[in-house]
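Q: Could you predict the 3D structure of Cytochrome C and Quinol oxidase polypeptide I?
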Amino acid sequence: MAIQTINLKVHTKIALGYFVLAALLGCVLRFFKVFDIPVTYKFIVHTHSHIALLGWVYLALTALLYKLYLSKAKVHKTYSRIFWFTQITLLGMLFSFPFQGYAAFSIIFSTLFLFASYWFAWFFFKHVPLEYSNVPSLKFAKAAIFYLLLSSIGPWVLGVVMKTLGATSIWYRLAIYFYLHFLYNGWMIMALITVLLYAFEKKHHILAKRSFNNIFIEFNLGIIFSFCLSTLFTQPSALYYVFGGLGAVLQLWAFYNLVVFLKVAKVNKGRMYSSLHQNILKIVAILWAVKMGLQLLSSLPYFANMAVVYLDFTIGYLHWTFLGVVTLSLFLFLDNFKLLSLNKKMLWLYVLGFLLTEALIFYKAIMSWQEGTLFPEYSVILAIASLVLLVAVLGILLSSNRLKIKH
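A: Sure. Here are the predicted structure tokens for Cytochrome C and Quinol oxidase polypeptide I:
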């Protein structure tokens, strides 16, 4: 009897397709200030963020986790059902958010997505083969999924807050920040570390048990404590600043120890990746270090207040994490595990678009902070830089057709 197989390459292309749509919606938002576009700006923002985080990143990460730990478990049929159910929820959000924002249909499909993620979490924990039980990277994978589940508390609380206290309550923002913090810093970052460690484990580069446990504990405590940084807009007691700063320091220390391990592994047993992949990894390491440095800086009252008053600093930080650290890591890992054929020219065009948009967003934030004036063509140039990102992502998707491997 033939065993059903899944073409994860197709799933990856679908994820990239959502990224193209998210980039297109991003361009609509940028050109909104250049042309008269007949859309509701706020509704497009909701669509853009949901499709980017849940369409592109979530699908790409779950495809990677399935390939690494479950592709030999003979559970293809169940995974396929989860995948296509998730598509229904994503398409529902795509065709409801732009027209009504947060309303009946968009809330229904957003809620159904949460159930799809719960289904995947149950599926993963239940079906990981016993042979992986002693594989260190699996510990990070399980932690990543735990944070995915933990983050979902945010949307549930948000619904209650909107019905009782309203959108002006501090609990409204706290629910959103809770969701984003554990989604970005918990689910995404821990899942990416999982894939990185797995790749090294396959080449027999394994962290010593004590070192691994230290790094694992430092990352987890860092993620939990640094949530305090997301509460500083409420101007809480000094203790929150201390715990937030401690969380940022712990993450930086864990990151440093991880980098040391990777360098030692490279020296002892040679290069792990191709030159292209090594260059991407170096860029990601720099972006990640800057991200955590900004986190640490935001634990100081002056800079915490800046992030609240000048929203472009927060927007720049979120895009830095999503478009830089997370997306470039995904490009690297999807290419490394043969789920994507990465076009070098489009990759570097993407990096260029990312750097341009980030420079412009932070430039605007600094001008607001210093009460300066933006140069007249700012909105047009930012819109064009966003177009560069769209072209690059579209180019990566179209060029990925060259690789046809079934898993």
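Q: Anything worth pointing out?
A: Residues 23 and 147 are 26 Å apart (CA to CA).
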